[in-house]
């Protein structure tokens, strides 16, 4: 990657914490595992999840991405954009096994590992455990170890904070690395379109475009008061991000915020009894996960996706957390009743428990955050 010019001095006395952060992001993880395990899929456009007629793409190979196929896209749209697209069912157990192998590699270099999903994580390598000499070389070694152990490629972003490390990991994908030192952070952020900022979704990006904010430099030119007027509680985050600031430490234990399950149906459902039967299966799968995580919570959320992909949620909180599968299921039934009867076909139901209450034992097991 070409060198980035050093930014002008910041207008205040802000000093970033001295950290060396690596963001590792596996390349097209689910699809790459499928291509690795099935040679007939290699070099071909592959979509994991869904089918040619129904469902949603969970992941797409880079060969499929050339045609605009991407995760969360309706399968029918993906098939229309890429007629030769090959759909394969997901094998989450296989992905979890590979993910665990990757985590074991991370643990060789640091204890400060913050997984974001099966295929990506932050690592704080400020302490050079293996006497490698630099975060850049550490990232190179980790990527090489991942390929050696799994046969899969990973991209890495290396920087002084989480925000920029995550942006950097996407800079030279696939199978690439990008290093942004502290003196180049603000200039790097200024050069990027705001739609690439983590936390800036399509709605916010569209609003920014209407305001003439297209790049990090445009965002940095706005005052905190201006951002507060237009973006409310997100203003401070945007203000700091535009200046390359992020004080968040890498947390090796992340609190479980919600646990649940969802199911996409082969055919759209409108019949009440059929919907209730389907909800029973979803509630059972969700409760199995809740028990596996050993959590309790007070908010039950029902997710409903209609045949036109319009999705709505309904939530209900109680003073006492559901403690048996029946009470959890009954809360879901009560929420679904508010939407019935319906003439619109329902293609997906989901049920989630949130408002998770952390046990004292879990709280005590957490490592203290790094000093800011």
UniProtKB/TrEMBL annotation:
Localization per Swiss-Prot or TrEMBL: Cytoplasm
InterPro entries attached to this UniProt entry: DNA/RNA_pol_sf, DNA_pol_Y-fam_lit_finger_sf, DNA_pol_Y-fam_little_finger, DNA_polymerase-Y, DNApol_IV, PolY_HhH_motif, Rev_trsase/Diguanyl_cyclase, UmuC
Domain UmuC, residue spans: 21-201
The record's free-text note on cofactor binding: Binds 2 magnesium ions per subunit.
Molecular function as annotated in GO: damaged DNA binding; DNA-directed DNA polymerase activity; magnesium ion binding
Reactions that this protein is recorded to catalyse: DNA(n) + a 2'-deoxyribonucleoside 5'-triphosphate = DNA(n+1) + diphosphate
Single GO BP term: DNA-templated DNA replication
Pfam families listed in its UniProt record: IMS (PF00817), IMS_C (PF11799), IMS_HHH (PF11798)
Residues the record marks as site: Substrate discrimination: 30
Keyword annotations: Cytoplasm, DNA damage, DNA repair, DNA replication, DNA-binding, DNA-directed DNA polymerase, Magnesium, Metal-binding, Mutator protein, Nucleotidyltransferase, Transferase
Function of the molecule: Poorly processive, error-prone DNA polymerase involved in untargeted mutagenesis. Copies undamaged DNA at stalled replication forks, which arise in vivo from mismatched or misaligned primer ends. These misaligned primers can be extended by PolIV. Exhibits no 3'-5' exonuclease (proofreading) activity. May be involved in translesional synthesis, in conjunction with the beta clamp from PolIII.
Oligomeric and partner information: Monomer.
Family: Belongs to the DNA polymerase type-Y family.
The protein, known as: DNA polymerase IV
Gene source species: Sphingomonas paeninsulae
